[in-house]
Structure formats: structure tokens, C-alpha cells
Amino acid sequence: MTRDRWVPVIVFVAAVVTVALVAQLANVAWRQAALLERPGAGTEIGAVLGAVGAVALLAGVWMARYHDVSPWARAAVALVGVHIAIAAGAWWLSSRLLTPEHDVPLLRVLPAPAIALGGGVLLFVAAAVHSRARRLTAAPAWLRGVVVLALTYLLALGIWVPIVVPESSRQFWSEGVITDFRLSVTLVPPALVALATALVAILRPPTLRAVGLPAIAIGALFLIGAMGRRDDATMSALAAYSNYVPVLFAAAWFAMAALAALAWTHARVLRANRADVARPAPWVQRGIVESPHGGNQVGTWHVDGWLAGFRTSVRGFTLRTARGDLLRVPDGARLVAPVPSAMVGADADAHLPALRAGEQVTVSGFVDACGDGPYRSAGHPVPGSDGLVVSARRRADDSIGRDVVLVLYRPCVLFLIFAALAALPGIVGNDGAGDAAGAAAAAAAAR
Predict the structure, then answer these.
(1) What confidence tens digit (pLDDT) does each residue in 156-182 have?
(2) What Cα–Cα distance (Å) separates residue 246 from each residue in 44, 297, 393?
(3) CA distance 361 to 287
(4) 93 CB contacts (<8 Å, ≥6 apart)?
(5) 443 contacts 45 by C-beta, under 8 angstroms
(6) CA-CA distance, 196 to 211, in Å (whole number)?
(7) Is 443 in contact with 87 (CB distance < 8 Å)?
(8) pTM, 2 dp
(9) Whole-angstrom distance, CA of residue 158 vs CA of residue 245
(10) Where are the beta strands (DSSP E) in 233-358?
(11) Diameter of the chain by CA atoms?
């Protein structure tokens, strides 16, 4: 049984939680507007709710186009889009209805939302520069590592904060406590866990799979401890915890920004590949794949796991062009191929066919033979110094958007799981004590 069997349940629960989140956002905004007696607040709240509903409708319609992709995979991606709309709406409402720095002194020392916004912008800029400078066939590995880092940090921070938060809110009125020991103890350990997880997921995927169950068990124990500590918390401790709610929101925003950057970069790479294969010969050569190994499968999709994602590889083959030329494509050439719908449900360490002998492909990166090498008088183009990129033929429905959905599917499911688990200790209270204050602080985090 694959982990994907649980995805329908996860997505359904996430949809219910999303509806509850929208209702809570509206409830908090209405109460704050009534407290301030601010005219026109109802119109602003209605506009935000309408915008969130419109985004949900557009996301659903857009995802419906990719009918050969699992509906649960499409729903997971659409739900994350709705969460982005909710975060944007909370940000705007908080700027109109709240002054969180007055009640959340940590924001004066650590403007976490502004840091998350700056980090997200920097991530897009770095991805744009990297994808422009190199001929990529997918989003770069470092960007996938950042996605793993952001998701893991969100989960670890949500579990760790309730455990280490002080019992008294009075400690937060000393900026020395905020900036020195307490802030480091709260924020650094989750960051170290996230960094280690990201490095292992990208560099050593088998190691991550080997330690997966023990890590889940340890995380579950910490989660139970965090929930127990919150359940017994005093009103003063709840107020202290509310100082870190903006940090949790900022971690969620950065995780969503990382997912958006991953989607945008993958789409950008595929568009660049379209331009690359439109260049004239000798750079581009088209023909039929002939395998010298006797096997049918030449290109392969490797599934490295839920966190590590997947990658492609190509065995060396011969390209027979329309003119009858036989061009050698060596091992290690990069492959651009449509992501198979079978990726949904594939086990970790699975190998799915990406390219077979007899298929028509376009290979870019050839140059005219020149110099003193053995190909000088061959009359055939040879691989250039930047390597070869093999582009498999796409069907009419193998669109860029479909590939992006399949690339984002598992990270989006993980975001829905991690965000729910990170928020779980925060919604546990002592018979609901501090619920109003906690809700107001949650909305104030969007500032």
C-alpha cells in the first residue's frame, strides 16, 4: 500500500479545515470591527470573503482541465491556492483592523511577516536568475531543497513553540529576553531540524526513507507533549504563546512562497525548452530513438520519495534522423518528458518509463564538428560543451500546467498535513480559555 492511499482522506479533512479557517477569519474580523466600531468594515470583510471564494472557484475550474490527473491530486494543489488567498486576505484585513505591535511585542523585535515576504521575493529572484543562466530540464535541486526546508520548518516550529514558550507573558515585556536566549531557544532548533532534513532529502533520499518511521514516532511524541502543554496552559502562558503566532504564520507564508516558486520555475523551464528546440540545425536534431542495449526503455523517471521528489535519467542511444544520419546521444544526457499520471500513487524508489526505443524525440545541444578531433571530417554534428537535452514528444493534452500540477501534488499534500499539525497545538486550550485572544493574535499575524 502506498502513502497515496491516504491522500483522499487528507484532502477531504484539509478541505473541511479550510472552510473552518475562512469562517474563523470572518469571525475574528467581525469581532475586531465591532470592538473598534469602524464604519465600512463589513464591506471590507465581505470583499475578502468574496475574493477567497472566487479564487477557490477559479482554482477548481482550472484544475478540472487536467482530467487524466487524479482528482485528489488536483484538489490538493487547488487547496493550497485557496490558502494563499486566505493568507493575503488576512494580511489585508489586519492592516485595516489591527495594530498587532501594541499587543504582540515580539513583532517589534522580529518582524517575521516582513522577513517571510522578503525571503519569498528573494527566492523568486534567485530561481529566475538560475533558470536563465543554465539550460535546465526541471526546477533545480536547490529549490526543491528550499521547499523541503520550508515545509519541515513550519511543522517543527509549530510543535516546538508550545513546548518552550514561557509560562508567564511578563517575560515578553523584556526585550532582552526576546532578543537573546528565549528567541534563540525557540527558533534555532526547528531551523536545524529543517536544514538537516532538507540536506538528507536532496543528497541522500534512501537515508531519509530509512529513518522515516522513527522520525515520525519521535515527532508524534513531541506533538503529544506540545498539545498537553497547551491544554494545561494558563491565561498568561496563552498570551505568551500568542507572541509567536506571527512567526508561525510567516513560516506558513514562506512555505507557500516556496511552492509557488517551484511551480513558476518548472513552468519557466518548460517554456525555455520550447524555445530551445525551436532553434535551427545543427543545434537541434530530430529523429527516432534506437537503443544499442537491446532494451526498450531508454529514459526513466526515478521517484525518490515524498520529500525528495523525482528525477529523470537517460541511457545512451542512437538518434536516427530523417536524413538517415546516426547520431550518438551519450549516457547522462538530460531529459525533458511529460510527467506520467502514474506518478500519483507511485511508491518511493519506483522507476517509471519516460522514453522508449522507437519514439520520436528532439535533441538539442549539437554543434558542427570542428577542430582536430576525430569528428572533423565526419560531416555530422557532435554534442556541444553544454551537453545534450532530449525532449520527448508531447501529446496535445500534455500541457505545461498539467506537469506543474503533478510536480506540485506531493509537496502540496505535505503542506496541508504539516500546516494542520503545526496549528493543532495552537487550537488546544484549557476549556477554550484565551480563545478570543488567541484568535485575535492569529489574525494580527498577517500584519
Answers:
(1) 999 998 888 766 545 544 444 455 567
(2) 22, 51, 47
(3) 6
(4) 25, 29, 44, 45, 48, 443, 446
(5) no
(6) 13
(7) no
(8) 0.83
(9) 9
(10) 284-290, 297-305, 309-314, 317-321, 326-329, 334-336, 351-356
(11) 85
